[in-house]
Each structure stands twice: as structure tokens, then as C-alpha cells.
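Re: IPE structure - here you go.
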Amino acid sequence: MKEIPKHIAIIMDGNGRWAEQRNKMRAAGHRQGVESLRVVLEKADELGINHLTVYAFSTENWARPKAEIKALMLLLLEYIKKESKALHKKNVRITTIGDLTSFDDKIQKEISKAKELTEDNTGLNFNIALNYGGRDEIRRAVEKIVEQERGGNREGLTVTEKEIERHLDTRDLPDPDLLIRTSGEMRLSNYLLWQLAYTELVFTETLWPDFTGEDLEKAIEEYQNRDRRFGKL
Ligand code: IPE
Ligand code: IPE
Ligand code: MG
């Protein structure tokens, strides 16, 4: 028996292109993407994965056209409302990462409800990245550290990304300008920058709405054939 990964992170990308290929609205692609998520959740649960972290909305996605954001928010609200009970029945625990304060009260409330409902569940942890950016996560972490240091006194306290950059080992270097990219989307798009340090990366050409449970199994198989060294020999 080969080792099953305990934590799988997914960047669910390609909804828009899937729709465009079919002369549909981008929102139709997002809707179909939700179906893939349902299937993948089911498969992950069946395989005994402990944590599934999916990138649903990035800090940069706010820069999309208003209409698309609106469609995504409606879909999110509908999804949480509709799915949380079913997921609860399956013993799934729903959690999120990202800064939720930017979302409508209505959405924040539904998310809180879903988390509370499922918080004692012991099955698969379904972790949704919402208004998530790796850089923002690190920035918020530093803010929290400083806040603690000051005994909760937030006065005059803001930590900017620029300040953090100035304190990194790479402070004397500009950010890379070029990453050579072949075939599909091979970038992190601000996803889990800290956390992905030693993660195995698997890229596939498949668009998210076409992604199946079999595709998940294939990715896991690829993972199982990798040699993880963690910098050691
Ligand atoms: C991923 O699909 C879903 C979100 C970013 C919300 P995209 O909407 O990025 O689809 P493409 O990349 O334009 O095809
Ligand atoms: C990453 O996909 C964000 C999500 C899947 C939620 P994007 O489509 O936003 O990333 P880029 O713009 O191609 O880098
Ligand atoms: Mg995309």
C-alpha cells in the first residue's frame, strides 16, 4: 500500500475557458466547477484524505469585472447554503482560510453557520480558501505577532507587504521577472506561498470543470511515484 497524501491543496482553474469553449457565460463555467468540486470531495473522502484545501477566490480575483464577482458571490452563497447540510451528514468539517471580512455580511454569516454546524465532525476537513492570498496571509500573520507583542494595542500598527519584503533574505533582489512556463498554467497565483515550500507539484491540462475523481487518483499516483527528500540525502 502506497502512502495516501494527508493534505491535498487544489487550485481549481479553467472555469472561464471551459465556458468560453462552449460559447457560454463564464458563470456557467463556475457553476460546472462546483459539480467537479462535489465529485472531488466525494473521492477525497472515499480515499481517506484528511485535509482538502481548495482555492475558491483569491485576493486578486476582486480585480475581475463586477458582474463576474457578483456571479461568484451568488454561487458561493448558494453553495454554502445548499451543501453544508449534506457535508455535515458525511461527517465533513468545513473550515476556511483567507480574510472573510471583505465578504457581505450574508456570506460571512452562512460561512460561520456552516463552520459551527460541522466543527465537531471527525471526517474529511474541507478547507476553502476565500479572499485568500499567500502574501496577505503572511502580512496578517506579522500584524498579529506585533499586536500580541504590544499586548493587544493596535495603535499606529499596520504592517505592509513592502515592509515584510524589506526584511526577507531576498531584500537585495528584485522579484524574478521570468519563470519559464510550458503547456498549462504553471504558477502558484499567490497560493500558499509559505506552505508549498516542499510540496510536490502536479500540473494537468484538464480544465477544472472537466476534472474527475479519476483525475484526482491519477494525481495521487503521480505523487506516490515522487521521491520526497526535504533537502536531505
Ligand atoms: C477558476 O477559474 C475560478 C476562479 C478563479 C474563481 P477561472 O475563472 O480563473 O477560469 P479561467 O482561468 O479564466 O479559464
Ligand atoms: C487562481 O486562479 C485563483 C483561483 C483558482 C481561485 P486565477 O485564474 O485567478 O489565477 P491567474 O490569474 O491565472 O494567475
Ligand atoms: Mg484562471
